[in-house]
Write a structure and sequence with these properties.
Length: 234
């Protein structure tokens, strides 16, 4: 087996990284290039952990790098409508290194970008439109799990606070206040605490269980601090 990445793959990866950094330069810290780099690192780790399923490492890495370029929170509906059409000029420009359009990997990357998000998957489940591809594509699963793992645990806590601040949403609201539904703390109960049960890879599930406990401890301490009910120091 040839070593990944080879010279041609490295040029494509570097170009995708440049595209990502330029496109996401104005995104807030919850969805910045450092988030993408963590997702990239974890997605490749999960791909190696699932090597028996023969994941395409280049597809995994490109999809991880590009997965938030078209995030609906930051770009227009027109741009997000067709990720393949959006990225096609980019992939075409790389044909002297690798023709990802001809070998269909450009389309696979775009499909992963289009299907990676929690909200997209939730809507597909509700509409009964989950396909065998959604259920079996190891490249999709590696990127999905990596993205979701970065939404929970210590990094997830920081990212939740960062997005809430950028959106001018309160971090904590008392339970008897009508604004509680819009708070950062409520987002843990609406979504983040549910993530561990929708992870796909076995390694992702193990990592998710650990990060889930970090969030539970954080919420417990938050409640204790709010109620001035902290246990005494030993």
């Amino acid at each position: 087996m040839s070593r990944y990445p080879n010279a041609q793959e490295k040029k494509v990866i570097d170009a995708a990284e440049c595209l990502m950094k330029e496109a996401m330069a104005t995104y807030d810290p919850s969805h910045d290039a450092f988030h993408v780099q963590r997702v990239r690192k974890t997605a490749l780790f999960l791909a190696r952990e699932n090597s028996t399923q023969n994941p395409d490492f280049l597809v995994v890495e490109l999809a991880a790098l590009l997965h938030d370029v078209l995030d609906k929170k930051y770009v227009s509906a027109e741009d997000t409508a067709d990720p393949y059409a959006f990225f096609l000029p980019f992939f075409t420009s790389l044909s002297e290194h690798l023709d990802l359009v001809a070998d269909s990997r450009a389309r696979q990357v775009a499909m992963i970008v289009d299907n990676v998000s929690w909200s997209t998957e939730s809507k597909l489940h509700e509409a009964g439109k989950i396909t065998p591809w959604h259920e079996t594509c190891i490249e999709l699963h590696c990127v999905q799990d990596a993205d979701r793992l970065d939404a929970i645990g210590a990094f997830g806590i920081m990212r939740c606070a960062a997005f809430s601040a950028a959106s001018n949403r309160p971090l904590h609201v008392p339970q008897d206040d009508a604004a509680v539904e819009s708070s950062a703390i409520q987002h843990f109960y609406d979504k983040l605490l549910k993530i561990k049960d929708r992870l796909k890879t076995e390694t992702g599930k193990r990592l998710g269980a650990q990060r889930h406990q970090v969030m539970l401890q954080f919420l417990q301490v938050t409640n204790q601090e709010y109620n001035n009910d902290m246990p005494p120091f030993n």
